[in-house]
Design brief:
The chain is built from 15 helices and 9 strands. It is of the alpha/beta class. The chain is globular and about 50 Å long. Bound molecules: S-adenosylmethionine.
Length: 360
Amino acid sequence: MCRKHTLAFIACVADDRDGGMADGLRRLIGATVAAIFSAAPEIERRRTAKNMAANRPMELTVARGAASLPASRWAGKGRAPNPQDVYERGFMAGLEAHYSARDIEARILAAIRAAGLNPDERLSPEELAALDHFHTGGLRASRELLELAQIRAEDRVLDIGAGLGGSARLLASALGCRVDCVEMSPDYCAGAVLLNRLTGLEDRITVHQGSALDLPFPDGSFDVVWMQNVGMNIEDKRQLYGEISRVLKPGGRYAFQEMAAGEAAISYFPLPWATEPADSFLVSAQEMRLALGGCGFSAELFEDTSDAHLGRSIANARPAAPGQLGLGIFVDNLAQKAENARCSLEEGQVRLVRGVFRVK
Ligand SMILES: C[S@@+](CC[C@H](N)C(=O)[O-])C[C@H]1O[C@@H](n2cnc3c(N)ncnc32)[C@H](O)[C@@H]1O
């Protein structure tokens, strides 16, 4: 089936080549503009074009206090001015542009109303699930991981790369536990804060804009670290797993699902996690296990769920019908990205894995 899309894919690559010079210029201007306009009183971000492109540890300084403000207070106060608010998308660089969504709060509210829901009444996390579980398998996959990780009400959980926080709300509402979210995208942070408020869960969930590679928490803060479909964006796995190990209490668990490298190189772009190859950093399942082992983790569960996933429908990856909630409300070009992901999985270019690892 995927082969049928080869011509469309070639056309897409050709378009990219035609626009290559203009794109390079846009990126250069974008990096400069973002650097100038991202300074804010409470959150100061210093990035180099190099570490933005490779998602290496950013020189990210969260001013004291801003990182630990409750979500309800954080929203308007500590938020860095988003270059996207002022400049067109084309001015932004790499991964930051990939995970940006202009006017996300207005878009979400309009979509909720269009779906026949009333944002002035408390919404349930389940009602929002088609919108806010931005990972393979959607809500079903989150529920399965929750069971596998055996998370308890008393556990303090960190959701890394939390996106709009759908899984954090599932954990907080289903189990009653406290969840901290770390998310790189200021737009997604704003969306998560809004949805926490609409579901009445802002007291149990705190949103931090920050980097997985420089987690803003003391050592041994969490019982569980949770991560879904994020590691694919991160080149420095050692730093990532080292940070996860550092913030876990002794004996704490790391529960995750993500894409691993398959037998062949990826040939379909854009993907849900990367507009272009420079933003995608897949390692094989074996390399993942070794890297985790090197950071003091041992596997309680590690499995390849690719075939099981392919046998199911991927409801949340389809563009929603008008009046229905879906990822397409904040993810550009969703249909093509989802189709490319499916082709990559079907052709063995990527594998879907999940695991629960315990740190010593
Ligand atoms: C495919 S989305 C998954 C979102 C969320 N985990 C979910 O399942 O709904 C990947 C997320 O990882 C975030 N991300 C990527 N690299 C990151 C990093 N170094 N630090 C923090 N967040 C990151 C992106 O901004 C994006 O929200």
